[in-house]
Amino acid sequence: MRRRRERNRQRESIDEINVTPLLDLTFLLLIAFMITMPLMEYGTQVSPPEMNSAELPDNNFKSVSLTDKGTILVDNEPVTTADLIEKLKSLKKSNPKLQLLLRADGKCAYKDVIALMAKIRNGGFTDVTLVTQGESSK
């Protein structure tokens, strides 16, 4: 009889697992990560790549430029944003292997450059080379 009672008590204690400490630990870790993740995002040091890329192609390319005033130029000829896509489509149709170089003034907003890249993509060019000044040009 006594052994049965001891076995029953052992089984009862195994059946009752207290999960409160596990939940406390889970919430503590969740709060710690919620606090530290924004700090890690803003504390990340980013070093931009050096501008020692390959030379620009000598032939079979056209350039699209964005001035600091927002003017778009295709081979130094001003183009409106409405005419840009049609002009690029005709260039791509006449020469499918044509490379496109994108030059943007350093004062241009990043969103303007991205918007111009989207228009270039709509014009049929999926591979665009961004042109920057080399280190020796500084």
Bin the strand percentage.
15-25%
Q: What letter string, H or E per element, gives the SSE order? A: HHEEEHEHE
Largest beta sheet: strand ordering: 3-2-1-4-5
**What's the CATH C level of the largest domain?**
Alpha Beta
Assigned CATH architecture of the largest domain: 2-Layer Sandwich
What structural class do you assign from the helix and strand content?
Answer: alpha/beta
Helix content: 40-55%
From the spread of the alpha carbons, the general shape counts as rod-shaped
Main sheet record? 5 strands, mixed
Mean of all residue-level pLDDT scores: 78
Q: What's the Cα radius of gyration?
A: 31 Å
What is the overall number of helices? Answer: 4
Structural domain count: 2
Oligomer: single chain
The stretches of 5 or more residues where confidence is low (pLDDT under 50) are none
